[in-house]
Amino acid sequence: MHNNPEHNDLEWPQLEAMKGHTEQITVPVAVKDAIQQGMWLGRKRKKRQMRMRVIYSTMCLLVLISVASVRFSPVVAAYVSDIPGLRSLVELINYDKGLQLALDNNFMQEVGISEEHDGIKFTVDGILADESRVIIFYTLDNLDGRKEVINLQNVKIVNDIEASLSYGSSEFNKEWVSKQGTIELNLQEGAEIPNTLELELNLGKDRVSTANSTLWHFVIPVDKEKFEGLKETYTINETATIEGQSITFEKMTVYPTRIGLEVVYDPSNSKKLFYFDDLRIKDEHGDTFGTITNGVSGSKIDENREVLYFQSNYFKQPNRLYLRASSIRALDKSKLEVKVDLDRKELLTRPDERLTLDQIGISILDFRLKNDDPLDENRTFNLFSNSYKDASGQSFDSNQSGASQGMFQYYIKNTDYQSPLTLTIVDYPARIHGDINIKIK
């Protein structure tokens, strides 16, 4: 989860895409009706003074797996069985074995505070927290059955803390009874978690309908002694070269809820390196811990440096660790700009013939992307930056985008432009291949 932060200014009906460092998870059709599928909604924030970093994973997909499709370890099942509200919430992290290990090791902090307004009960069930992030587990109960769609809106942490928020929206049946989800607080390096977190939010179908709605407020206690000092840091400083492109892996920090890997891309690279397809961490037993795919999966330090997040193996304490990868999505830096002629309704520049302009509507550009690469099966690309410019050089923000397999919608401001518009590619199904095999310890 862009991620981002910077998040949550987009409305659910218009979004089917994942922003920033995100991937798509396929869920069995048999449990489709039980799935709560959320999207990390977002847009780039205005830079604050003194902020060193901006989390740029702007949107990340949350998939809430059905109880029929998952199995929990006996340790987890026994631990949560006596805590109201937490047993079913464990399903929300079934996709992340690092978080499951945290539960196995009694790392969940029970909270159990709630408020009721207008037939809805919101309960903060518990939190998973370390020095890197806080995951807040919540339950929504439809007490009188009157509410059809209730999404989280205007979520914020009142405390002055260097962090960003990610949270999801859910699909609702007309007669829903209970919904569960998570809110993720991603801390910038060096940020301190207070003894209590003050959470505020609104509930409603969309931002417009919740403009004058009740403000919900929760004071969440945090047991800092439970996680203070729980991290391990490894200095790597190894450089890999793939098809002439250099990547340096500098440092890895292992926290109980995730791993952060600092990566530096050589500024002299001829290609823009977007994302690793299969970067993972393996131990001496062959157990693999991959990148985070449901939540914030990376944070940008500067143009050529970032932190990538992985599922955590903190509680396994492996004796040997290796970093492996075989392909990276990348594109020549000379091909990153796509120019759209608004008058002739055509593309003046594009990376290759696979990208085409389908149509131009009011405040929207419709693209098609032909892609038969098996590595991209079930993957939806966030093609463009949310900032674009016209021929005069004036910059604009695209607040919304939407995607489905092979289709991409890019929303633009309804105003007079000097054609053409220039859009910048931030991900594309072009690749470099090679073997990365680095020993971490």
From TrEMBL:
Gene3D superfamilies documented for this protein: bacillus anthracis domain
Pfam families given in the database record: DUF4179, DUF5643
UniProt domain DUF5643: residue ranges: 232-339
Segments traversing the membrane: 54-80
UniProt KW keywords: Membrane, Transmembrane, Transmembrane helix
Residue ranges annotated for the DUF4179 domain, each copy included: 47-141
Endpoints of the signal sequence: none
Protein's name in the database: DUF4179 domain-containing protein
Species for this entry: Paenibacillus segetis
